[in-house]
Amino acid sequence: MDVKIFGNVYLRANEEGRIVPVYEHSQTLRAVPYDVPQIGFGNDNINNLRLWDVEIPEEYELDYPTIEARRRVQDITAILYPDNSSYKGKELRLIQEYFMTSAGLQTIIKSYLKQGRPLKDIHEKVSVHINDIHPAVAPAEFMRLLLDDYGLEWADA
């Protein structure tokens, strides 16, 4: 799963006249899932806990030429609850929240599409529980994915 952070976005008309977003100067990171089975006590239930790691995609390696630049990327999944009393700490926390939320939502959408169902009907089969404020970007990111990445119209998304 690739997640883009930073950069700029603007809108323009494509060849068919549809308004589409154009992303530029962003950083692409790869979200790598690790699934950990959670076995229920006294029942036959096994749930899945998905944990995320971050990698620099091979095609973007040159965008991270220093050890410091690579360490900042690794901090996204290596530091739990960074100190947010500074700008850098607040920025890291926001990146973490967005990175994991986007990766999780992309997984949900891809899993749903594997079932052969139309994406515009995802609301009939999928619900997303937002626990606490950390994934508060989920509704906006879910809409962004449906609109920008999958081409749904606003009313269908």
What features would you highlight for this structure?
single chain, 157 residues, alpha+beta, three-stranded antiparallel sheet, 3 helices, globular
Question: What is the structure about, briefly put?
Answer:
This protein is α+β, with helices and mostly antiparallel strands and 157 residues long. Helices cover 33% and strands 25% of the residues. The chain is built from 3 helices and 5 strands.
- Molecular shape: globular
Q: Care to count the β-strands?
A: 5
| Widest sheet: strand ordering | 1-4-5
Structural class: alpha+beta
* Helix percentage range: 25-40%
By DSSP (H or I, 4+ residues per run), the number of helices equals: 3
Overall domain count: 1
Low-confidence stretches: none
Please report the distance between the alpha carbons of the first and last residues.
21 Å
Q: What value does the average pLDDT take? A: 93
Question: How many strands, what sense, and barrel or not for the largest sheet?
Answer: 3 strands, antiparallel
User: H/E element string?
Assistant: EEEEEHHH
Report the β-strand fraction as a percent range: 15-25%
Oligomer: single chain
Radius of gyration: 18 Å
GO molecular function: glycogen phosphorylase activity; pyridoxal phosphate binding
EC number: 2.4.1.1
Protein name: Alpha-1,4 glucan phosphorylase
Family: Belongs to the glycogen phosphorylase family.
